[in-house]
């Protein structure tokens, strides 16, 4: 009888311990991926972050955290030195041997989608909400995101009755040198299309362009994103390093639009709806009033 009671008490203790563990999310998080880090903060989990990668620049308070380097070039030592319970990142995170080392050290690793797709975003938010114990706020954020994009789609339909969709290119570079054109299937392509642009690049992925290719495409608008420079500095460097761009219709009409490069990393982030509103206004100047949120 005593043995039965002791066994019952032991099993009950195990069950209670498991419930407590499930109810208590990991407390020390490291995040590799700008969009993921932003969503963690938006869901109230910023206090759990003890380290982030170099693409995690928003909110600005994340810059005060220790850096684990670029999300594709992580080191196990840098991550493990922060004594995390959990490492989160997208499938872009790596390299794989580093992730294997981190797992072998007893750190939980959770992967998310970096795909520029609303279904992938919904899954990411559901996953993060479960990890943080914030399922309801995650569902609410997802619903608001869809609502904002639907509203923009309606405003764009009205704007396109006044002006045809502009031909657009998105260039991603470093200090102006060797920019890449965002082609089909990229986050940049998703961004241009959602903002009502017609992406002139028909190739897949990101590719370097030649002066001749750019002259042939002759975009109405160029969106440029520089990993090293901001604003006017980035534009000056881009035109200096790529003089052929100055002859484009976009440059002649002064329709060159800067874009924060961290918006293109780690999947769809919380700042994108506001960015899409800004791009749409730049793409449709004749219908700017009707595009106001």
Please tell me the CATH architecture of the largest domain by its name.
3-Layer(aba) Sandwich
Tally of extended strands? Answer: 10
CATH names the topology of the largest domain as Rossmann fold
The major pleated sheet works out as: 6 strands, mixed
Q: Overall pLDDT, averaged?
A: 89
How many structural domains does the protein architecture include? Answer: 2
- Please bin the fraction of helical residues: 40-55%
Please characterize this protein's 3D structure.
The structure is a single chain. With 293 residues, the protein is an alpha/beta fold. The protein has 2 domains: 26-112, Rossmann fold (3-Layer(aba) Sandwich), CATH 3.40.50; 141-291, Rossmann fold (3-Layer(aba) Sandwich). It is 43% helix and 16% strand. Strands 5, 6, 7, 8, 9 and 10 form a 6-stranded mixed β-sheet that branches. A hairpin with a 2-residue loop joins strand 5 (167-174) and strand 6. Helix 5 packs antiparallel against helix 6. The longest helix is centred in the middle third of the chain and has 25 residues, at 135-159. It is globular. Mean pLDDT is 89; it is low at 1-22.
């Amino acid at each position: 009888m005593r043995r039965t009671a002791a066994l019952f008490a032991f099993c009950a203790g195990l069950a209670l311990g498991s419930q407590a563990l499930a109810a208590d999310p990991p407390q020390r998080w490291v995040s590799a991926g700008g969009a993921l880090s932003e969503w963690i903060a938006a869901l109230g989990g910023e206090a759990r972050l003890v380290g982030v990668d170099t693409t995690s620049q928003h909110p600005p308070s994340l810059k005060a955290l220790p850096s684990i380097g670029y999300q594709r070039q992580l080191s196990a030592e840098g991550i493990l030195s922060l004594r995390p319970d959990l490492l989160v990142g997208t499938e872009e995170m790596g390299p794989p041997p580093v992730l294997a080392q981190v797992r072998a050290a007893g750190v939980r690793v959770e992967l998310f989608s970096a795909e520029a797709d609303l279904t992938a975003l919904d899954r990411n938010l559901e996953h993060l909400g479960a990890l943080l114990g914030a399922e309801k706020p995650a569902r609410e954020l997802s619903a608001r995101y869809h609502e904002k994009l639907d509203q923009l789609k309606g405003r764009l339909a009205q704007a396109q009755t006044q002006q045809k969709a502009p031909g657009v290119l998105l260039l991603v570079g470093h200090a102006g040198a060797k920019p890449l054109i965002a082609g089909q299937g990229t986050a940049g392509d998703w961004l241009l299309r959602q903002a009502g642009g017609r992406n002139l690049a028909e190739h897949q992925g990101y590719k370097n362009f030649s002066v001749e290719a750019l002259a042939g495409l002759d975009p109405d608008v160029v969106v440029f994103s520089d990993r090293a420079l901001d604003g006017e500095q980035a534009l000056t460097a881009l035109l200096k390093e790529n003089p052929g761009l100055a002859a484009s219709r976009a440059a002649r009409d002064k329709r060159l639009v800067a874009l924060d490069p961290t918006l293109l990393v780690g999947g769809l982030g919380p700042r994108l709806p506001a960015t899409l509103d800004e791009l749409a206004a730049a793409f449709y100047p004749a219908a700017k009033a009707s595009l106001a949120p």
